[in-house]
TrEMBL record, chain A:
Location(s) in or outside the cell: Nucleus
Entry protein name: tRNA (adenine(58)-N(1))-methyltransferase non-catalytic subunit TRM6
Keyword Nucleotide-binding attached: no
InterPro entries: TRM6 (IPR017423)
Lineage: Eukaryota, Fungi, Dikarya, Ascomycota, Pezizomycotina
Any Pfam family the entry gives: Gcd10p
Organism expressing this protein natively: Coniochaeta hoffmannii
Cellular component aspect of the GO annotation: nucleus; tRNA (m1A) methyltransferase complex
Gene Ontology BP, a term: tRNA methylation
Family classification: Belongs to the TRM6/GCD10 family.
Biased composition (Basic and acidic residues): 302-316, 323-332
Ranges for region Disordered: 293-344, 587-623
Automatic annotation (TrEMBL), chain B:
Domain tRNA (adenine(58)-N(1))-methyltransferase catalytic subunit TRM61 C-terminal: 123-265, 288-430
EC code: 2.1.1.220
SUPFAM superfamilies: S-adenosyl-L-methionine-dependent methyltransferases
Source taxonomy: Eukaryota, Fungi, Dikarya, Ascomycota, Pezizomycotina
Predominant location category: nucleus
Organism, as annotated: Coniochaeta hoffmannii
Complexes and interactors: Heterotetramer; composed of two copies of TRM6 and two copies of TRM61.
Name the UniProt record assigns to this protein: tRNA (adenine(58)-N(1))-methyltransferase catalytic subunit TRM61
Biased composition annotated in UniProt, kind: Basic and acidic residues: 463-498
Function: Catalytic subunit of tRNA (adenine-N(1)-)-methyltransferase, which catalyzes the formation of N(1)-methyladenine at position 58 (m1A58) in initiator methionyl-tRNA.
GO biological process: one example: tRNA methylation
Length: 623, 498
């Protein structure tokens, strides 16, 4: 993650109204915050994150508003004053009359630090704000137009001209001030658009269903239970030896397949959250953000160019982030040039690392990973500028996984011509030739390595039937690999967990009840069990299937007014099913345990029921 | 040098394809019954066992030889191990062995041949590679443990990612240490100077510190976790006088507000810090990045004090949450008279229909019975046959087809018998990096203002119109349409804002 705001990078601006604005910081533009005003984007580029700024009034002779960093002491001035007041009058005798009726759960603060004690009065009298406000609409509009003191002046005026101000209790007064502050204060905070913030933004302000209502708690659980972490240093396959000529081409196809030796540190992801889950996993594996260039080094190297046209400069330096139309042309051009300058590797050289990778299985022809564009990665771009995901993200369709021979891009051999013919080609046709061959090698590698399995973990957040996903994904997992399946609702996970229930496992192991097709098959053969009505999945392949949910409850912490917030987001709760890929022993395995019938009789119905149905309950072991 | 640098990666980070001697493995008896075992390749009989080192569980005995060099996740059958005739010195009743949740024996083995373990007729376990989750569920308790629902959320919120330097105080039972080591791991540093993700863990309690130290070493996490025995309230967070340059902080301390001043970017303006004013202030934080913090306190009073201290020390975006985690159990609710007698089934009517049918049947039987007694016959008429329920043991339904107990009944979920309702309050906050006037000036010079060409973000009516006119010259038809659309959108927006 960058330490300062990058030109053409994405940031989130938090406004006083508690809304978040997500935008790309294009240099030399004006960023408008709507009613709060506007400022030049250059004022936040290469500045730190998390600072709170205040829009200043335009200086004379300048066409733009400058911004000022608001120190924390100023942000918390009201609270400090209140704390000091509380410390000064140590006997809270007059508290009895206070009625706290905070229905909206906002943080409110006291107004006047100078007056010391504020006389507390109950707010049983209902105050109609508009009726008591003596400033007319026109006057307020005029004040807004003047826009002095970053909105503080108008707030002060509004408070002073409120006729019933002295009738307000300290709490309602604080609330009134907060209300007006949120409306008029011209402040904002610049936040990095990382995965937690993107999730929060999608969930609370945009379309929660696009990320399947996945809250921070759930991302944390899925990431941990799927044991997603940095998978080791990149290992690249050796390219074909120099001077590899056409005669060896056929062997080369074969080689492509053979050299797949599945390594550890590879995760399988099924993602119907437009790439949000992939982004979260990539963040955990350290392949989401580009490595930060030292701002100073960069400055030294580019200073010479500084006097040239600024636009070009920016586009060249950050080609990947220039997704806006203007920069697009230059971007592809510069990327294309780069490729030319580099000594071209063999077409069949696989660009992917063999470890620390994410393999995404997708249902449509193309994967939907649109959220990755916020991190400068575009899956559709064939000549992608450097980005860690380029060599670590492998995507394939379900068709390619299950029936690769029917997929044209896998089964159709690429064109192959002699070196002399190639030299005679027009440059753009030659480019196409190489591109086709490279794409073929990539597809081959992705499909072959995925089919070879041995994945270190599985993370699922899908709208598809989880049972059908696991039927094909389970055989691909290494033994002991963790599984985490997220679902916004409980029911699909309950069905899935039931596939691995103890009674079902016992029935599977019992020759009398087991499906006749399974009799006499080895454990390895049964891994690919295609499922039937009684046993949708091989119930012995998953160990310790269990469902959980988490919820973070937010609190307001203020001196003397600490309590949970009154409202929170509703909607889908979100659940995670976790388990491990087991490797069942060959043949029938008898369970051991003391089946104490006597004890069972004494227990109540609920307990005996759980003994029958809990996965591996304590009293007994059931195979 | 080569021997030193080629270090084995911790089994927590890369467990390899199968179990190997000398590493940690988790023996899974059941979902909540996990035993951490350091696998040993024993050379001879051990502690009276001819098979070498043996793990004894309630589901049988498992010599390490049967657990070694098998793929992870394997189901392992129990072995017939002579537990009776070995040395009588530590006799214990066999029935209790299970309650002790298994026992691992590691004493020096005699140097004779290991007996080949004979497979038992029943009993099994699964063997799993260690992960922070499994370790947390099985670890030896020393203090209150930070469980997975809490640490997964915390690590996500404090942005512990590969390459992050994280401060943790106190180490406690080590669950958070393991989880954070996995989160920040981006390779072992090749030498002292290479900067990699690292956990700087501080523990006040000496015994706990020693135990943790051994654990970290045994788990191959040294180099990734730097453990320091320290009272952080008094002595702060520097390691050998040098800054850890941390970006993330997790404080699991009784009084976080006493440790907070040490986590400042410049010298705090209090008496105790002013005292050693001659020494230059070294901040334990990364000077280039925002620092994310989380404190973990069970009591609300602690939170109030912590938050107040944070505000005064310049932390922003302060937020307090608590995590409620629930685990759900899945059952099949089998209710009904049509269900064969079996354990767990509720032999009451499933619906009104069944209830009525049963009542009618009883009524009928009663009538017949009274008729029979009136007629003087005392013999057992067909009633006896009717009394015999479909079956008890065979498990077949009325038609004789096998009764599929695993499919019968409604799927339901329930919470666990006991729930954790409160772990601790989590206070999150961020400390932005310092930004000097000189830096601001340099940045302003590099990115001069005044030459703005267009407007982005939310536009007000006038700005948007000007923008359109500037781009399209306000002439062609398309533009007009677009402008109209924009005006529409605007009026909506305006309405929404109002």
């Amino acid at each position: 993650m960058y330490s300062v705001v990058q030109p053409n990078g994405w940031v989130a601006l938090k406004l006083p109204s508690d809304t978040t604005k997500v935008l790309q910081v294009i240099p030399n533009t004006t960023i408008s915050l709507g009613k709060y005003g506007s400022f030049p984007s250059n004022l936040i580029i290469h500045r730190p994150y998390h600072l709170t700024y205040e829009l200043e009034d335009k200086r004379e002779g300048e066409s733009f508003c400058r911004i000022r960093v608001v120190p924390a002491s100023e942000l918390y001035a009201d609270i400090f004053a209140e704390e000091e007041t509380a410390a000064a009058c140590s006997t809270p005798a007059d508290d009895s009359d206070r009625i706290i009726s905070a229905t909206d759960g906002v943080e409110y603060s006291l107004v006047d630090p100078d007056s010391g004690t504020v006389v507390a009065r109950s707010n049983r009298e209902i105050i109609d704000d508009s009726a008591r406000q003596t400033l007319t609409m026109e006057e307020i509009e005029e004040l807004k137009r003047d826009g002095t003191g970053a909105g503080k002046e108008i707030i002060a005026k509004l408070l002073l001209s409120h006729t019933a101000l002295d009738q307000k209790t300290s709490f309602s007064l604080a609330k009134y001030k907060l209300l007006k502050t949120k409306k008029y204060i011209r402040r904002f905070q610049v936040l990095p658009l990382d995965v937690p913030l993107l999730g929060k933004y999608m969930l609370e302000e945009k379309d929660a269903s696009r990320v399947l209502d996945m809250r921070d708690e759930m991302i944390g659980l899925v990431g941990c239970w799927a044991n997603v972490h940095y998978g080791g240093e990149d290992v690249l396959l050796e390219g074909p030896a120099a001077g590899d000529d056409e005669a060896t081409e056929k062997e080369r196809f074969q080689q492509l397949k053979e050299e797949v030796k599945p390594m550890t540190g590879r995760w399988l992801v099924i993602d119907d959250t437009s790439g949000f889950l992939v982004a979260a996993m990539a963040e955990r594996m350290g392949i989401l953000y580009k490595e930060e260039k030292d701002v100073n080094d960069e400055e030294a190297s580019t200073d010479a160019k500084m006097d040239e046209k600024d636009d070009v400069h920016a586009a060249e330096e950050y080609p990947s982030e220039g997704t806006k139309a203007e920069n697009g042309e230059e971007m592809t051009k510069s990327a294309g040039e780069q490729v030319h300058h580099r000594p071209r590797s063999h077409d069949f050289q696989v660009p992917f690392s063999q470890t620390n990778t994410i393999t995404v299985l997708h249902a449509a022809n193309q994967p939907n990973l649109s959220f990755l564009t916020y991190y400068g990665f575009d899956i559709q771009n064939p000549n992608h500028p450097p980005h860690p995901l380029v060599n670590h993200l492998l995507t394939l369709t379900w068709l390619q996984l299950l029936h690769p021979e029917t997929d044209a891009s896998y089964s159709t051999l690429p064109p192959s011509v002699s070196a002399t013919q190639l030299a005679a080609m027009k440059p753009n046709r030659r480019g196409t030739y190489h591109r086709k061959r490279r794409r073929f090698a990539r597809t081959r590698h992705i499909v072959d390595s995925a089919r070879a399995g041995n994945f270190s973990g599985l993370a699922v957040a899908s709208t598809m039937d989880n049972i059908s996903i696991l039927q094909h994904a389970l055989p691909l997992l290494a033994g002991g690999a963790p599984i985490a399946v997220y679902s916004p609702t409980l029911e699909p996970l309950v069905e899935l967990a039931d596939c691995f229930s103890v009674p079902r496992r016992s029935a599977w192991m019992n020759p009398e009840t087991a499906p006749p097709e399974t009799v006499g098959k080895t454990a390895a053969e049964l891994e690919r069990w295609e499922g039937n009505d009684d046993f949708p999945l091989n119930p012995t392949l998953v160990l310790g299937a269990s469902i959980q949910t988490s919820r973070a409850r937010r609190w307001q912490v203020l001196p003397g007014r600490t309590h949970p917030t009154m409202t929170d987001r509703g909607g889908a709760e979100g659940y995670v099913l976790t388990g491990w890929r087991a490797r069942p022993a060959e043949g029938r395995v008898e369970a051991r345990g003391k089946h104490t019938a006597k004890r069972r009789k004494v227990e109540d119905r609920g307990a005996s029921e759980s003994a029958a149905a809990t996965p591996l309950s304590d009293g007994m072991q059931v195979s | 040098m080569a021997a030193d640098t080629i270090k084995r990666v911790s089994p927590f980070l890369d467990s390899g394809p199968h179990t190997t001697p000398g590493t940690l493995a988790i023996v899974a008896l059941s979902r909540d019954n996990l035993i951490p075992v350091y696998l040993q390749d024993s050379k001879g009989a051990h502690d009276g066992y001819a098979e070498g080192v043996v793990v004894n569980t309630r589901y049988g005995s498992f010599p390490h030889s049967t657990l070694l060099n098998v793929p992870w996740g394997s189901q392992i059958r129990a072995s017939n191990v002579d537990t009776g005739s070995r040395g009588r010195k530590r006799k214990r009743p066999e029935g209790d062995a299970g309650d002790a949740a298994g026992e691992v024996n590691r004493e020096d083995a005699a140097a004779n041949a290991v007996k080949q373990a004979a497979t038992a007729s029943s009993g099994f376990v699964h063997i799993l590679p260690p992960t922070p989750e499994l370790w947390t569920a099985s670890l030896p308790h020393r203090t209150q443990v930070v469980y997975t629902p809490d640490y997964s959320y915390v690590l996500h919120r404090i942005r512990a990612r590969p390459g992050t330097r994280i401060i943790e105080a106190g180490s406690g039972s080590g669950s958070f240490t393991h989880a954070s080591a996995r989160a920040v791991y981006n390779g072992y540093p090749r030498d002292g100077s290479e900067r990699k993700g690292k956990v700087f863990s501080f523990e006040y309690h000496e015994t706990r510190f020693e135990k943790m130290k051994n654990e970290i070493l045994g788990h191959g996490l040294d180099g990734l976790v730097q453990l320091t025995h320290r009272d952080v309230y008094k002595d702060g967070f520097l390691v050998d006088g040098e800054s850890p340059e941390a970006e993330s902080i997790f404080l699991d301390l009784p009084a976080p507000w006493q440790a907070l001043p040490h986590l400042s970017r410049s010298r705090p303006q209090t008496a105790e810090f002013a005292a050693d004013g001659e020494k230059p202030w070294v901040s334990p934080l990364n000077p280039k990045k925002s620092a994310y913090i989380c404190t973990f306190s069970p009591c609300i009073e602690q939170v109030t004090k912590t938050v107040s201290a944070m505000r005064r020390l310049g932390w922003v975006n302060i937020e307090m949450v608590e995590i409620a985690n629930r685990r759900l159990q899945v059952f099949r609710d089998r209710v009904g008279l049509h269900i064969p007698t079996e354990r767990g089934a509720n032999l009451t009517p499933a619906n009104v229909g069944e209830a009525v049918a049963r009542l009618a049947e009883i009524e009928e039987r009663f009538k017949e019975h009274s008729k029979a007694s009136r007629s003087g016959g005392n013999s057992s008429t067909p009633t006896a046959a009717m009394d015999v329920d479909t079956n008890g043991d065979v498990m077949a339904d009325a038609n004789g087809a096998p009764y599929k107990i695993w499919k019968e009944g409604r799927l339901i979920t329930k919470g666990e018998p006991e729930v954790k309702t409160h772990t601790s309050y989590l206070v999150f906050a961020v400390l932005p990096r310092e930004w000097s006037a000189e830096e601001e000036e340099a940045a302003f010079k590099r990115w001069p203002c005044g030459g703005e060409e267009k407007v982005i973000g939310s536009l007000n009516k006038q700005a948007r119109r000007e923008e359109k006119i500037r781009i399209h010259g306000g002439k062609n038809k398309d533009t007009k349409k677009k402008v109209e659309k924009d005006v529409e959108a605007e009026s909506k927006e305006a309405a929404a804002e109002a």
